[in-house]
Design a protein that fits this description.
With 150 residues, the protein is α+β, with helices and mostly antiparallel strands. The chain is globular. Helix content is 18%, strand content 33%. The longest helix is centred in the middle third of the chain and has 22 residues. The N and C termini lie far apart (38 Å).
Length: 150
């Protein structure tokens, strides 16, 4: 199965999920039958928070970028495509991240995202990072319709 990022944005250079950013996190999200999207991410040693756990900024980036997959999946299912000449239909307007427990630095973590509310103007996604059956961090991300201004 092809990752949503590879299918939709093969030339995207986003640090978190851009396939064209060789130095980025290269997050790969996959659709599930229940409408959610999932991903597995293996942290790098460079993602250390100084205490041997996954850095909070990296976690926030993963949550943001993984929520993008759920948001754009919802948008594309509804026919809310990007404006002509643009690659994204929606952009992050805000994300509220809550850190629940430390996340491991040396083990793969799982990301799960789903849509909470959706309209053509904005979509809200719920996203979480899990390891060992427990939520390590979670967020609610608000995405707004991208309408370039001239």
């Amino acid at each position: 199965m092809i990752a949503l990022q590879d299918e939709w944005w093969p030339a995207m250079t986003c640090f978190g999920c851009g396939p064209a950013n060789a130095e980025g996190l290269q997050l790969k999200s996959y659709p599930q039958l229940d409408g959610s999207v999932t991903a597995t991410f293996q942290p790098w040693p460079q993602h250390d928070n100084g205490g041997g756990f996954l850095n909070g900024g990296i976690i926030a980036t993963l949550l943001d970028c993984h929520s993008a997959a759920a948001v754009h999946q919802e948008a594309f299912l509804n026919g809310w495509m990007p404006a002509e000449g643009e690659s994204l239909a929606y952009v992050t307007a805000g994300i509220d991240v809550r850190y629940r427990r430390p996340a491991p630095l040396r083990e793969p973590v799982t990301l799960i995202a789903s849509t909470k509310d959706a309209s053509e103007d904005e979509i809200t996604s719920l996203v979480r990072l899990e390891w060992d059956g427990k939520v390590r961090a979670e967020g609610e991300a608000l995405w707004k319709r991208w309408r370039p201004r001239s």
